[in-house]
Structures are given as structure tokens and as C-alpha cells.
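Progress narrative, work stream C.
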Amino acid sequence: MYIHRPVIRNKIVLLALILAQLCLIVSYFFLNKPHIEQKLNKISFLPKIKILNQADGRMYYTLNESVHLKHVTSRGFFLDFNSSMCFTEGTDIKTMIVVKGVNWKCNCLQGWHGPDCGYPEILFRALLASRQVHKVKGPVPFQHRLIYVFQYLKASDNLVDMRISALGDIIDLFIVYENGSSYFERELQKKAFKKWQHKILYVTNNNSFNIWSKVEPHIKNLRDDDYVIFSPTNEILDRASMIFLKFYQNIPEPIYFRLKWSVFGFFWLHPRKTLISAGACTISYLRNTLNSNLEALHLRNNKTEHLPQKGIILGDLNHTGGWYCEYCASPEEIIEYLTSTLINWDKIGTTKITHKFIENLIQTGVYVDSKTELERGHRSDVDFAPPYVLENDFKFDFLLVNFYSENDYYV
């Protein structure tokens, strides 16, 4: 069979060129192998973050590590309907989808307001009640990070659970400090908050007067417009108000929360109804105006006359900004707390606190001063209890039902 010689010659030349290129590539690799390996070792696809110490099984932070806050866009919490950006949690998505072709405005769910349905009822009412003009804007391109600082007390163990479990998805960092004990750390070691432990910075042997100056150097990527929330012990804050802080700016500062004042459980209310206790502000405001003093965000004794004029209070008698659940613990824990604090027992009218004494207070609805009569709370009441508690009533039933009263026990 005849084969044209130029075709054979071309194929041989092409094969020779390919072999020569392969030889050059292999030679280059071996000659530069040390240099290439050195470059590969320097490549990092993720920021260098010090991994939590896994040797002891610990999945929470201490002051031995640095906490790197993530930058997260706001886009995932908003949907684009035609030309409208609607906040997912506050928008009636089902209705919007049905009439998507003709609907050019966000259809807000009950309790949400604003052009994007991102204003919760509590903030909407606070802005209306304010006598000042506020130009709240949003959503911001990147979420403000929320840092929640509070103290752990053994007698408030149930409230710690409510705070972390109910707000774990929107809080970027919980700073939990404990003074003179390590009960909470033992709970962390038992992985009591396994789902959110990677967001917890635990600080021991400390108090609120210097907590921020101690932890701030360990928080990386902190921005001036991030928020710090401070609520010392018994507060459970409204989730909608907290999530609003992540996406909007120009909110009046400082921010205080008017809380529904429950005692022994959500079935008893203090006659004063509400209490202003917890507070929040941006990192910039904390540094420049409050001189990094978190205590300035704690409004002691409900003295509203000391509130800054430019600030805002979230919550009123009809829609509170959360719950202040005082003595919401077992009789044993209440006794332990009362006997460890400085209380004038002469005013209480007894020289010895007993289990029976506490049970009688809970049963009859009398405050710890043995004089103040508490008011009854009902499940039909507005803001009777935090949604997380109602959704997990099997876990918090003793705070929802007065088991020491026969009238409530058999309801």
C-alpha cells in the first residue's frame, strides 16, 4: 500500500515537538521543585484563624484565643420582588409569589412595617413615639455583627439557656462572664450548648466594670458600626428588635429595652409591669461616648430621667422589648441566691429563708419582701412569655404553670 511520505514526516515532527515539550515541563518541575513547594505552603484559601483547642474537646473560646468575626452580606435575608427588596422574615412570601407579576410593594406580615417589611412592631412604635426625626436607613450591604454580653448566675441558668438557644442564629458572639465560680464552664464542657458553643467567649473571675476592656483586644475584624448588647442577668430580649440591628443604620443611640417584669415565672407579674434594664449601642458609641464602660448601658433602678435625649427605648406597656424574669428558678436555687446576697432580712419579716417560705410566695403571688402583691399573668396576654419558651413548654413548664397553686396545676 502506498503512503505519502510528507504526511509521515509531518506526524513524526509533531510527535517530536510534543515529546520535547514534555521533557521541558518535567525538567522545569524538578529544577524548581523546592521553590514550588515553598509557594504552595504559603497559599492560603482561608484567613489564618487560630483553631480552638481540640485537645480537651473544648469548642468555645476563652481569652487564650482570638475571635475572628465573619463578614456576611445582608442579601440572603432579603428577596427581590419586581423592584422591591423585601425582608424575608417580615414579608408574606406566599402572597407575594401568587401576585408577583402585579405586586410592586412588599406585603408585610402582622407585626412588621416599613417599605421592605423590615421594621418590627416594637421599633416602629418607638420611632412614632419619639419626638425627634430619625432617618433610619437600610439594609446595609454587610450585616452589623451583634455581640451579646451578660453574666452567668447559677440561679439564672434557665434564662441563659433561653438567651443562647433563642438568639444563637442572629448573635455573632456571646460573651459570658462569671465571677468567683466556674459553673457555666462546666456546662460548656458537657456541651450543654453544642449548637452554638463556637459563638461563646467565656470569661471567668470578672465583673461588668472591666469586662469590655478585657475582651475587646481578643475580638478581631471589629467594626465601628457593630453592636454590643449588655443585659446583666435576668433579661431575655426580643428577637425581632435584635435582628433589626443587623441590617439598618442611623438608629438613635443608646438603645434601651423596656422589659415585661415577671417574677418566679411568667404566671406572676410585678405591679410595676415593666422594667428598663438592658441596653445596646454601636462599638463607636461605646468607645467615644461611654468610654468603653458597659455599665453605662445598664439603667439601674429604672431611672428614665437619666436617659440620653437622643436615645430610644424599645418597648411599651403593650409591646415590650423582652422579659425580665426575676427569681425564675427552683426554690432551692432562689434560696441559694438570696442567702448569698446582701438583703435586709428585717424588711422581709423572717430571719431564715426556708423551702416552704419560697413555695408559699410562689403559690400566693407575693414578692420576696413578703408585702408586695404580684399580678397574675395569662397565656392570652400579649407577650406572655418568649416564643422560644412557649415552643419548648415541656422544658420550661415550671415557668409557665404555677405548680404550687392548685388552680393553675390542673389547668
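Work stream C, second folded protein:
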Amino acid sequence: MGKRIYAYALYLLMMAVYTMVNVPYGSLLGVMTEDDDEKNQFSSFRMVGAYAMGFATLLSFPYLQEMVGGTATHQYAVIGAILGVVAAVMTLACGLLTKERLKPKRAEKFSFRQFADLVHNKAWLYMTAIAVCTNFFNGFRYAVAGYMFDCCLHGNVTIEGLIINYTVFMAFGEVTCMIFGGVSPWFTRLVGSKRMAFFWAATLCLVLSLVFFFIPMSPAYIWVMIALVVLTSVGIGIYSPLLWSMYADVADYHTDHFGTSATGLIFSSGTMSQKFGTAISGSLIALFLGWAGVNMITDKMGNTMIDPASVTDSVLIMVWSLFSLFPAFIAFLLMVLAWKFPIKK
């Protein structure tokens, strides 16, 4: 019990500090430039870096464990400490080496009116819904990928000596997101506006998620599944940088309509929306699996897992749907929200 309290307390403290760092980090985008194209490029750099490190971490972690050696507990402690120091140094460098070139009009003092104005900001309401939905889309897919491999594909898939588990499976998507995050500014210029670029990216995610549902649940089709994950990630890679660039536009919209700057508040609400979407999507997956008839058991190590005896055809269909049909519905909502987004630039 003491170890659990220690772990939960440190995790909550870490996330609190993460929020303290992430809010000003995100807000920088709104005060570094007024140029829309530059905002898109800066946001693109941000997302390319995020996906690149996600891919590098997924791919290198097993090798880092071998280098460190010892028990799994020792490996996680050492690697976590090293990556934590790297993250802290790079984040500090970001803060020290960037410059706020815009001096927006600020509220004279804190007031709850700032929150009231935010609720009346139509663009912010749409943006909050978009942020929640994007994390629903990603949350469903990432959280259910492990269940899909365990239940539908009967474990890791080995093809010509290549072992494909759910982390490798999703790593293909990470690489694609990284590449097309860099393409996002060009695509936005091509279609004429951020909202339309977001709309077409969400449309791609909708169509490909629907197609995924009709793939047979067989390891023989693993390359077809990977191909669809890669193509879906093209859409994710395009709309991910737009999310934060559009938040900067919402901050400008707020200043124009209400006369005060709420850049920090707006970007912090973006972080909140993302965390909310991630948390709720995970809870919904557990709920839907329970409705389908899943029972959970505890293994010898104390880890919770699905009882193999409870994996029926309805459970298999539910797992497959959670990776395809449910994200498709969320992508449809993203299309509608992007189409009706009030800022047209």
C-alpha cells in the first residue's frame, strides 16, 4: 500500500509539473509570430519532434533495457531517470532560446470574467470539442491495439522472422505521423485554409477506419492492416499540427472580440481537453468490453488481464469495432466540427 501511495503521489506531482511546463510551452505559439504560415510551420516542427521521439522510444526501449541490464525494476528506473534529464534539459533550452515577439493586450488583473468570456467564445467551444474528439480518436486506437493482438490475432505475428506486436504495429503509424506532420503546412496552403485541411484529413481517417472493419481477423492480413494504419496516420499527421495552430487563432479571435488576452488560458484548456479525451476514451473501452461480455482476471504477477474463457465472438467484434467503427464515428464528428469552425483562415 505504501508503494502504491508513493507511485500515485509522484505520478500526480509529475503531471502537475508537466502541466506547468506544457501550458507556457503551447502558449508560445501565440506570441512568437502573427504570420499564419509561420504558426503552421512552428506547430508542424512541434508535432514532428513529438512523433519522432515517440517512434524512437518505442523502437529503442528494448535495446536500452539490454544495455542497462539487471532487473526490470532497475531498467525502468535508470532509463526513466536518463530520459527525464534529457527532457528537462531540452525543455529548458526551448524556454531560454525562444522569444516572445508579440505583446498582446492583457487583462489588468485576474478575474472570473475571463472564464465567462471564454464560454462565450464560439471559436473556443468548437476548438475544445475538436481537441476532445482528436484524443478520442487516438485514444481508442492506441488503447485497444493490445487487445486486438491478444484476442483477434492470437498474440504477436511473426512474418519472415519479423516479430510484429502492437507496439511495432503502432510504430508504423508514428513514423507516418512524423513525416506528414511536416507536410501539413504545404497541404494547408493547397486547400486554402486550416479548417478545410482539418476537414479533409478527418475525412481520410473516417474512410480508412471504416475500411479497416472489413479486414478479416487473421494474421495473414497483417500487412493490409499495417497499410491502413499507415494511410490513416497520414490524416492524423496532417491534422495534429493544425490543432495547436488553430488554438493560436482562437487566442487572436478572443483578443479581437473581448479586448483582453487569454492565450495562456486558451492553451491550458487545450491541454485539459486532450487529457480529458484520453482519460474518457480509456474508460469507455473498459465499459464497452464489459457490455460485450469480457471478464477480467489477475495473473500471478498481479496484473489485470482479460479472461480467455470470456472471449466470445461478440467480444472479438467489439474489439475490432473499437479500433475501426468507433474511431470512424469520431472522425465524422471531427469533419462536422471542422466544417462549422467559425475562423475561416
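The mean pLDDT is 83. No further action is required on this item.
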